[in-house]
Design a protein that fits this description.
Order of helices and strands: HEEHEEEEEEEEEEEEEEEEEEEEEEEEHE
CATH topology: Tachylectin-2, Chain A
CATH superfamily: Glycosyl hydrolase domain, family 43
Helix content: under 10%
Strand content: 35-45%
Structural class: mainly beta
Oligomer: single chain
CATH architecture: 5 Propeller
Number of strands: 27
Number of domains: 1
CATH class: Mainly Beta
Largest sheet: 5 strands, antiparallel
Shape: globular
Strand order of the largest sheet: 16-17-18-19-20
Number of helices: 3
Radius of gyration: 20 Å
Distance between the termini: 35 Å
Length: 411
């Protein structure tokens, strides 16, 4: 079972998280000093400082605990964000709990808020934050309907784009992971396809969904690639990163891949090109850009940012450390070579069988040399009589935590 997959268990109690920097001493290989894709200067980058962002973490707790509405977000993971043209921020989540939150105190005398055991869960949701930074409303959920029986959609990265090339009208494109129910080890669904949804602006109404990469023809589900865990712009291109589910098949780490589209072209499946190991091609089988199956690689969800001409990737560490440690890599190109693992973050987790997972950068909230990063924390054990009690007893665990980072030359 994958580290990130295990961490998606919907059970747990939560406490505050203290983050500490951890260093991994690895040699740095000499590289060209130019970003081959974007034209910027490229130098080795690592986390040089951090601090907990209590403001954002507390804002999600406030919104989730607000008893005024009974059909809004009370907890979720996935945690992607997008700044809209009018200054609002759209937050996208995968599996999400709705319904009321009660307390404190809860019925068993604990000091935390609690959720009814019958609280509904949907496969995806979207929450709108005002330009002021205050969360305002949950869009009708699920925002992206199931494509068929036994299938569902998880939203990942998103972009604001012209409705069509050259158009002055803009829309939101949201990348979706489609999964199909399966047996162990695919307890969180068999990877099925990458899709792109279109939302109207400013109303955020779903207009349609198009398939970009259908993976059903690939028999080995562990080799299927879903794109959209991270997306960024460089030069004339939008680079879209993806990964496989090798961890679910018992391997220590998953493998990273990258595709690209002309900027503004996410909604055009024919515009997508995939890195095949030596070149970009429209109908190529994607080739890995990071991952050796053991020490180096990614979790099933990771994030990539661009700092000047350097690309920095944050992911969970390989093996059992992946339940506790975020690590980073850097490169001068989206296709690599990726160097690391280097400096990362080691969350001090609450007591019990819990884990951190799914690090995601939030450029919409970053600036001034500071990068906002979120991570999800959850209970691991989804079996046994205590599972439902753990879920109902405390709602604070299944929500994003935030830190702000600074990047600089490795020490």
């Amino acid at each position: 079972m994958s580290d990130d997959a295990r961490a998606r268990r919907r059970r747990g109690t939560g406490l505050g998280v203290l983050l500490a920097l951890v260093c991994a001493a690895v040699p740095l290989t000499a590289l060209p000093d130019r970003d081959r894709e974007g034209g910027g200067a490229c130098t080795a980058r690592a986390v040089t400082s951090w601090q907990a962002d209590r403001g954002l973490t507390d804002e999600f707790a406030r919104y989730g605990n607000d008893p005024v509405r009974t059909d809004d977000w009370t907890g979720g993971d996935g945690t992607h964000s997008l700044r809209l043209p009018d200054g609002r921020v759209l937050w996208l989540f995968s599996d999400t709990y709705l319904g009321p939150v009660h307390g404190p105190p809860n019925p068993v005398g604990e000091s935390s808020s609690w959720r009814d055991a019958s609280a509904p869960m949907v496969r995806n949701s979207a929450v709108v934050m005002a330009a002021s930074g205050r969360l305002r409303r949950t869009l009708p959920a699920p925002l992206f309907p199931d494509p068929g029986a036994g299938q569902w959609r998880w939203p990942v990265a998103a972009r604001v784009e012209p409705r069509s090339p050259g158009s002055a009208e803009r829309v939101v494109r949201v990348l979706l992971w489609t999964r199909t129910a399966g047996r162990a080890p695919w307890i969180y669904g068999v990877p099925t396809a990458t899709e792109v949804a279109t939302l109207s602006l400013p109303g955020l109404r779903l207009e349609g969904v198009r398939t970009v990469l259908d993976q059903r023809g690939l028999a080995d589900a562990a080799r299927r690639v879903l794109f959209g865990t991270s997306a960024l712009d460089a030069g004339d291109w939008t680079y879209v990163f993806g990964g496989n589910d090798a961890q679910a098949a018992g391997r220590r780490v998953s493998t990273a891949y990258v595709a690209r589209v002309p900027r503004g072209g996410l909604g055009e499946p024919g515009a997508w090109e995939y890195w095949d190991g030596s070149r970009w091609a429209a109908r190529a089988r994607p080739a890995p850009v990071l991952g050796d199956g053991t020490r180096r690689g990614v979790g099933s969800a990771f994030t990539v940012v661009r700092d000047g001409g350097t690309y920095v990737l944050f992911t969970m560490a390989a093996g059992t450390r992946g339940l506790t440690t975020l690590t980073s890599y850097w490169a001068c190109s989206p296709t690599g070579p990726w160097h690391g693992p280097l400096r990362g973050l080691s969350p001090s987790l609450p007591a019990g069988d819990v884990a951190a997972y799914n690090p995601q950068a939030h450029p919409a909230l970053s600036g001034g040399g500071r990068l906002v990063l979120s991570y999800d924390v959850n209970w691991l054990d989804a079996t046994g009589a205590s599972a439902q009690a753990n879920l109902s007893r405390n709602v604070s665990l299944y929500r994003p935590r935030f830190v702000t980072l600074r990047l600089g030359p490795p020490p």
